[in-house]
Amino acid sequence: MTRVAAVDCGTNSIRLLISDVRDDGTVRDVTRTMEIVRLGQGVDANGKLAAEAIERTRKALTGFVQQMRFEQVVRVRMVATSATRDASNREEFFDMTAQLLGEIQPGAKAEVISGEEEAKLSFTGAVADLDPVQGPFCVIDLGGGSTEFVVGDTDGTILGATSKQMGCVRITERIMRTDPPSETELEIAKDFVAEKMAEVERDLPIDKARTFVGCAGTFTTLSALAQGLERYDADAIHNTELRFPGLRTITGELKTVSADRRKLNPVIHPGRADVIGGGAVAVEGIMDLAERAAGVDTFVISEKDILDGIIASIVADMRGTQAD
């Protein structure tokens, strides 16, 4: 048995998954951890990572590395997504990750991956526990800086994948700047999302999808809110089904109230409270797309996502190495 780790560093959060890989290739989760670091702070406006954002990320990753050492992790893969793809000073960030991750696996450092690869990794993780007969699936990974869409089946057949520069942090920083947002800001945000959804419909065979799967923090938080949970419970959230009419009631409130009011709800992470309104606008646009293009009126919410896809990629690499 080999203990491995996956790290996903996005625009808003950095997350860790440690798993055991058995000799037959099956995987058992050991622990999952998430911290809000807002690495993408100001990237959309300034084109570079803020020094304080890099420092927040360094502190969080240092804690992750300490946890990996305690758990005796021997292999690690870290991917960095939208914020770092857009930053002019990204090498400073990558040098920092190399220094820290090298303590676990010599030569390891964060990798910039394309939006399309990000989508495929998210798809692999998100559909892992779903019945293949529910496919084809459209997996939507709604992040801070970008949103990935991929249509495919559980057998690995990918019918199409795309990444759009539309995430909860980007929408908030670019458009919904007042708290709570004005009606004008909400209309502009709605139009922005609608433009991106038209691109998705043009780029992907959305009409072939039978099940739409939402993953990452905005979607999972919406599930917790829909269920009226008193605390965030990943087991209660995983593979829940949300119907669009009820979901629109929740998103309608989220996008119009202040961040301080959102923070009062125990299932909304304090570091997500100021941007989930932007996420709510994005989700409303995705619902419009699903209804129009595929006749679908529900989301399945998955707690599994790109982290699980990264672990799967480590397993595939290990087994390929062993086969050699």
UniProtKB/TrEMBL annotation:
<dbReference type="GO" id="GO:0008894">
    <property type="term" value="F:guanosine-5'-triphosphate,3'-diphosphate diphosphatase activity"/>
</dbReference>
<dbReference type="InterPro" id="IPR050273">
    <property type="entry name" value="GppA/Ppx_hydrolase"/>
</dbReference>
<protein>
    <submittedName>
        <fullName>Guanosine-5'-triphosphate,3'-diphosphate pyrophosphatase</fullName>
        <ecNumber>3.6.1.40</ecNumber>
    </submittedName>
</protein>
<dbReference type="InterPro" id="IPR003695">
    <property type="entry name" value="Ppx_GppA_N"/>
</dbReference>
<keyword id="KW-0378">Hydrolase</keyword>
<dbReference type="Pfam" id="PF02541">
    <property type="entry name" value="Ppx-GppA"/>
</dbReference>
<dbReference type="InterPro" id="IPR043129">
    <property type="entry name" value="ATPase_NBD"/>
</dbReference>
<feature type="domain" description="Ppx/GppA phosphatase N-terminal">
    <location>
        <begin position="23"/>
        <end position="292"/>
    </location>
</feature>
